[in-house]
Amino acid sequence: MEHSFNIISTASLEKEIELISDKNGIAISREAFLVKESLKTPNSPYFVEEITLLLVRNGDARIRINLDEVTISKNAVIILTPNYIVEMLEYGENLELDILLFQYDVVADLPLTKDITNIGEILNNSPSLILKDDDFQEISDLYSVLAYHCTKQKLHKSEVTKNLLYALCYMVVDFYQDKISSEIKFKNRQETLYKNFHSLLFIYYKKERSIKFYADKLNVTPKYFSKIVKQTSKKNASDLIDEMVIMGIKAALKCSNQSVQQISEEFNFRNPSFFGTFFKRRTGITPLQYRNM
After folding, report:
1. Is the pLDDT of residue 1 over 50?
2. For residue range 142-160, what is the model confidence (pLDDT) as tens digits?
């Protein structure tokens, strides 16, 4: 199995999906693709290396983005930002997607407003949403225009594709902000604390696995922190931390050529033996067995 199958990037996906790439580094699927024909390593974590927009044309699926399980269906829009970890848990035979990939520096020289430069913060709480038919069609139309212009290689076309991408980003962020605004009134302090924990966990999971660390970061007691996480997620805080760590380890084992000792050090374990015990207790197999499966 090639390690590239566990990376979401233009270089890895163009081996399996027909992508159109322009001079700016924008890559876009020529036509929607069936996941069952393109996903070569189901139930394995994927590292996201480029900003990725997915449009669900048909079908449904259950996926995990970082620690959150998300159910998607027709008319769903999903945005993944670099360093996200994604797993496809279940998907229908007819799940059909379009995909757009680009690096942030493609639009870095455009006069971005605060709203769009904070896209990572906006998406942190809601990496996916399902649109109304008219809204999804609006995005689809602009997506098609962008795909058309990506096939043009004349010099002036590079500015056209950059600005079309810019417009598409704005449109998507607007839809996300509408959703977030409509949900704000339902959020309370407990839900906010849980979401902040989620954000911290994504930043520190490789180095910190203690409940006290995250409670201190959130300025609450470990007891209160554990109680709120349990009430909000129906899972223990320690289990959520371990899930994130295991997901990251699995991705490192599949996506890199690092040795077990190197991965052990990257995830701040005292030694490879403790690392192996931690992994086996939670998966039933050793790190090497998982890598060689």
Report:
1. no
2. 999 999 988 876 656 678 8
Q: Residues 95, 60: contact at Cβ < 8 Å?
A: yes
Strand partners, 61: 72, 91
Strands 46-48 and 7-8, by their bridges, are: parallel
In whole angstroms, give the CA distance from residue 153 to residue 138: 25
Question: What are phi and psi for residue 271, nearest 5 degrees?
Answer: -160, 165
Q: How open is the CA angle 199-201-207, to the nearest 5 degrees?
A: 140
Spatial distance between the Cα atoms of 106 and 144, rounded to a whole number of angstroms: 19
Q: How far apart are CA 236 and CA 231, in angstroms?
A: 9
Q: What is the pLDDT of residues 114-148, one digit of tens each?
A: 455 455 555 555 678 899 999 999 999 999 999 99
Helix, coil or strand: residue 128: strand
At a CB cut-off of 8 Å and minimum separation 6, what does 221 contact?
Answer: 215
Torsion angles phi and psi, residue 267, rounded to 5: -95, 15
